[in-house]
Amino acid sequence: MYYMAMAAEEEEERKRSTTASPTLVRKFTKPDSASEVKSDEPKWSWLRTWGARLRLPRRTKSKANLDSYFAGLGVDVPDNPPVKKEGDTKRTRNKGKRRSWRRRGKDKVEANEEDAELTAEQRVKLNVAYRRLFDLLLRKDLVVGQAVCLSLPRAGRDRLAERIVELYSHNGLCEALLVRLIRFEIANAPDPQTIFRSNGAVSTILSRHAKLVGRSFLRKLLQPNVLAICSSIPTTKYEINRTVLEEEGQDASSAAIDEHVANISKQAEQMLVSIREFLPICPRPVRIVCRELQEATVARWEGKGPGVLGGYFFLRFICPAILAPEVYEIAEPGTLTPQMRRALMLVSKTLQQLANGLPFGTKEEYMVPMNKFLDSHAETLQSLLEELMTAPLDNAHTIEDTIQMNEGEIQAALHSFLVDERHEIEKNLKRVIESEGADRTLSAELAACLDSLGRPMRSYWQLPKKDAS
């Protein structure tokens, strides 16, 4: 109530210096009669609401206590509450106010009513500002682009990563950017076991890049195996968690679990056979990333290259398509049952652990029976990864998707992202400049470019307005 007391003092001072209309404000006093209470009922109802919004103590929210409470503070307030106009809601009251453009899972561009039309002069200025921005992002040294990639926020990270991959692929710089990001990540990683294990900014960019260039390859590689697993259910069982089997009322004996382990091993082995068969036509950009990962890891940690390479190839490229076949058009949407998804998950988990080069332990104790498969196929995986590294890059028969670019969507997404994460981008840019001895004037150039951009304006990209309903 300190601020209300201050407001009261300011109001008294204003009344002493100017002539106030006696009908606009009135000193609160306790009602003398029931008729006066009745006539002031709307006012007191409003005051109780006002008291609730101010989070006053519960005892002050009654009619009598509010009277003494405000009278004790000496506060002058209007006789009647503000009249709520038709259509006056929280959403309409906030129109015209500056909002945050942070992503919440998908790209959004908030705009005010005055953004409906841009003048020719405004459009020319924005064109110049965007030209300056993309000149900075697409510099051959890729210093600014690297800082931008390292600053991707958690919210909407996947879609932003896709826009960045589209931009640099369209300009022929994506592979060079990925190489820089890999080297930077490995140089700053404390342990090879932690590289690309979490969904960090660089890991997300590598995953989205692999998905965009390898969708057709993965569909051709995995579709027969995935459909074979799904069609084998329910006659063939894959569950090896004894607790789950008991809860579902199924046979949880050791013999049954051994049979299910054999079913998983059979499908995982068939996956490895298919991967080896299709390695020669693996997308060129994916193989370039694999080679850079191998070289950079071995340069820092001798003998740790295969583990990092296997982690990327399976965790970021192969296994996501096994776990979500509908996304890669391997299976029709809505056709997979929970049992099918569980079987695919168990096969994927087995392949991933094989690539990690580690046995199952107490963390997932029910998977320990699969350690026998891991031991017997360790050499198979090693030879597969060596073949992946030695396969020629100039194979004309590789299956590689062309990445399409929508310039308006990229501008909209990057503009909003740069405005929201400006501080983080400038911090990472300084970090990259110091680590590589790059041009220090880039920080000032980027700051001037962002100042000239201003806030995102939906009408510049001719995007549909957000539905107000």
Walk me through what this model shows.
A two-stranded antiparallel ribbon has the order 1-2. By secondary structure, the protein is an all-alpha fold. α6 runs antiparallel to α20 and α14 packs antiparallel against α15. The protein is globular, with a radius of gyration of 32 Å. Residues 18-43, 93-116 and 461-469 have low confidence and may be disordered. The longest helix is centred in the middle third of the chain and has 31 residues, at 201-231. It has 20 helices and two strands.
CATH C-level category of the domain at 127-390: Mainly Alpha
Main sheet attributes: strand count, strand direction, barrel closure: 2 strands, antiparallel
Biggest β-sheet: strands ordered side by side in the sheet: 1-2
Superfamily (CATH H level) name of the domain at 127-390: GTPase Activation - p120gap, domain 1
Estimate what percentage of residues fall within beta strands: under 5%
Number of helices: 20
Low-confidence parts: 18-43, 93-116, 461-469
Report the mean per-residue pLDDT as an integer: 78
Order of helices and strands: HEHHHEHHHHHHHHHHHHHHHH
Quantity of strands, as a count: 2
**What fold name stands as the CATH topology of the domain at 127-390?**
GTPase Activation - p120GAP, domain 1
- Class computed from helices, strands and strand pairing: mainly alpha
Distance between the termini: 37 Å
Give the oligomeric state of the chains in this entry, treating copies of one chain as homo and distinct chains as hetero. single chain
Radius of gyration: 32 Å
Helix content range of the residues, please? Answer: 55-70%
Tell me the CATH architecture of the domain at 127-390. Orthogonal Bundle
What global shape is seen? Answer: globular
